[in-house]
Amino acid sequence: xxxxxxxxxxLTDSSALDAAIAARADYAGFNFYPPSPRFLTPAKxxxxxxxxxxxxxxxxxxxxxxxxxxxEAVAAARLDAIQLHGSETPQRAAELRxxxxxxxxxxxxxxxxxxxxxxxxxxxxxxxxxxxxxxxxGTLPGGMGLAFxxxxxxxxxxxxxxxxxxxxxxxxxxxxxxxxxxxxVDAASxxxxxxxxxxxxxxxxxxxxxxx
Length: 212
Description:
two-stranded antiparallel ribbon, globular, single chain, about 210 residues
């Protein structure tokens, strides 16, 4: 089985971005959800987007954002893809893909097997599915270090490319890939020394462990 691609999400400064690039991660995630400790202002996003240019693909994370906010972030960070982490419907995903001409990633929160099946509705509307742990009502939609039962994805066959997020760390990512066969893994809190503070050593360790 080939090594999974790697997305490191919620990068907020140049040292974290440089560490992600040095560790040969495939995607840098920039968070545009204001309540998150990893939120990026357009000015900071522009700085990191320029630094990433040609070195790593940039994925913008949005939660039920309006078109104007997405447009501002796309332009500032020079995004390569849009990730939807709210209650966006297949119709909304398709609208954004058409409006911005960028691949759309849709996050599916998973707590039980029925949740995995929700991905099917996004065939033809999104370009990529990211399965993440469903967080408690009233909390942030992701980045809380929670994992779900990876066996729910064992033998998964869906029409869209997909990846795994939720509570992944250097200590457990190899096991997660072994169980799920995930073609992509995504870490946020698992590469931090504190909420929103990325640790270059943890970034290097995670990427090494993910590749086995």
